[in-house]
Amino acid sequence: MRYDLVIFDNDGVLVDSEPISNRVLAAYLTELGHPTTYEESIRDYMGSAVHRIHDLVLERTGRQLPADFDTTLHSRIFEAFDRELQPIKGAAEVLEYLVASGIPYCVASSGTHERIRVGHARTGLDEWFEESWIFSAEDVGRGKPTPDLFLHAARSMGVEPARCVVVEDSPLGVQAARAAGMDVYGYTGMTPAERLTEAGVNGLFGAMAELPQLLA
Fold first, then answer.
1. Are the C-beta atoms of 14 and 161 separated by less than 8 Å?
2. How buried is 33 (Cβ within 10 angstroms: 0-12 exposed, 13-18 middle, 19+ buried)?
3. Whose CB has fewer CB within 10 Å in the chain, the N or C terminal residue?
4. What is the pTM of this model?
5. Which long-range contacts (CB under 8 A, 24 or more apart) does 158-165 make?
6. How distant, in Å, are the alpha carbons of 55, 81, 85, 204 from that of 184?
7. Rounded Cα distance, 144 and 59, in Å
8. Cα–Cα distance, 18 to 82 (Å, whole number)
9. Residue 148 neighbours by CB distance under 10 Å
């Protein structure tokens, strides 16, 4: 294999959380007086850390979000996860393939550690990840599209960035991977292929079953 480490995004790549979380986010922002559609939430916030929501709302309106925004948002998202969250079809099979092939992997997500772990526990993917293989934007302070998170994951796993490949589904994540000097493959489950191509992917795939061939 031409890579020494596979770095997975989490939301939308391993767990099918993006439709849920963006629906909740759009509704909460609208409730707070910042009218936001589901489509706008996907466009503006998908793949980003929560600080981007604060930054964009302040930039656009001059108003700060409530101090308890993050806590309330995550509480509502977790409640929805308990009812609805599923793994991405084929994700567990890809992880099983990597384990069988002896290929190291990890997850590097804009979400909080709590969000990653709640999602994995709810979908049964927690059995595939050791604690030391889970990285969050919380670890570095700045989320995607900056390269910090991916560089932190590679450094922690002991692999040079040029020997890493990232699996992403958002343009912000693709930009972060490219800025880190890593190859990146774009999953088109929710994001139009052209948006991922514009962001700089090395290749595209529409089903997890296609990923092992891309990585080989």
1. no
2. exposed
3. C
4. 0.88
5. 159/4, 159/5, 159/104, 160/4, 163/3, 163/4, 163/5, 164/3, 164/4, 164/5, 164/6, 164/7, 165/3, 165/5, 165/6, 165/7, 165/215
6. 27, 28, 25, 9
7. 18
8. 14
9. 17
- Cβ 128 vs Cβ 28: under 8 Å: no
CA distance 158 to 196: 28
Contact present, 63 and 154 (Cβ < 8 Å): no
Residue-wise pLDDT tens digits, 112-138:
999 999 999 999 999 999 999 999 999
- Residue 108: which of 167, 158, 172 has the closest Cα? 167
